[in-house]
Amino acid sequence: MENSFQSLNWLAVIAVTLLSFLIGSIWYSPVLFGKLWQREADITDEKMKTGNMGIIFGGAFVLIFISMFNLAMFLGPKSDLSFGMIAGFLTGFGWIATSIGVLYLFERRSVKLFFINAGYHIICFTASGAILGAWK
To answer: DSSP string spanning 52-93?
Structure first.
């Protein structure tokens, strides 16, 4: 375990965390799926203005960082772009999206909302896996 922490590329983990924020800012904006996401998640413009944005974005940053740290640990120091991308996709699709899917079935959430949210994670983990695998 000590070797894994010593060889972990912390700069790459921070970079893919920031990348996930960038992807999210586009993915959930009106340019792509923002309005559809709001409608399917039953979040009005008024509700979007409420809440402590520092806690929401700060908490999201910490959670995304933990996810990317775990992906980097999973990939290990000998990964490359190809393996990182495939492993990232399989993580996003095979673990994250399927886990979200189970919850959505029981919560009776819409298929559209599932594809929006699962798609975001699949894109983030695929791109992040490729970067973590390639960045030495």
So the answer is: -HHHHHHHHHHHHHHHHHHHHHHH-TT--HHHHHHHHHHIII
**Cα atoms found within 13 Å of the Cα of residue 59, Cβ hemisphere only:** 6
pLDDT in tens, 29-79: 999 999 999 999 999 989 988 888 899 999 999 999 999 999 999 999 889
pTM above 0.85, yes or no: yes
Evaluate whether 51 touches 84 at the Cβ level (below 8 Å).
no
Residue 14, CA atoms < 13 Å, CB-side half-sphere: 3
Q: Which residues lie below 8 Å from residue 79, measured CB to CB, with a gap of 6+?
A: 87, 132, 133
Residues 12-32 have pLDDT tens digits of 999 999 999 999 999 999 999
Distance CA 132, CA 27 (A): 21
Q: For residue 113, what are the CA distances in angstroms to 34, 93, 117?
A: 11, 15, 6
Cα separation, 56 vs 120, in Å, equals 18
